[in-house]
Amino acid sequence: METDVHRSIAAAAYNRCWELLETQGRSAEEDDELLTAAFTSRYHWAIVGGREKAITSDWMVSRAAQALGESDIALRFARRAYDAAQEPSTSDWLVASTAEGMARAFAAAGDQVQCREWCEKAEKLVARIADEEDREIIAEQLASVARGS
After folding, report:
1. Which residues contact 82 (CB under 8 A, 6 or more apart)?
2. Contact at 8 Å (CB) between 115 and 107?
3. In CATH, what number does 3-143 get?
4. 62 CB-side CA count, 13 A
5. pLDDT digit string (tens) for 90-125?
6. What is the pTM of this model?
């Protein structure tokens, strides 16, 4: 398969994940499609996307799994994304996003203590994002994490 085909499939599957995540009252078939699309995107980005696309696609698998109540998968891929994002060359928004992913995964697992700790860590990282638009996007995602009481 050509590189541009891998990129096209990866991007289309990633964008489909966002469409499905934003769909109110998803059907069971759409839930299955969500997780399938996340793994499809991950597979194709792993071939052609480089390190940051790999991190982002692990984050998306975690996000999709969290939305479906699959906390084990959510935690596994959130951790992969976060760990990979710790290299100094990683974009500031991506480091913050992976911390948000950890908070969201712990929320899915019902671990309110870890969720709150990761939310606090993510808030500090969000504050350090240089680009205002990137900072607003990640802050909005973080605000949607169910933090518990």
Report:
1. 98, 99, 101, 102
2. yes
3. 1.25.40.10
4. 28
5. 999 999 999 999 999 999 999 999 999 999 999 999
6. 0.93
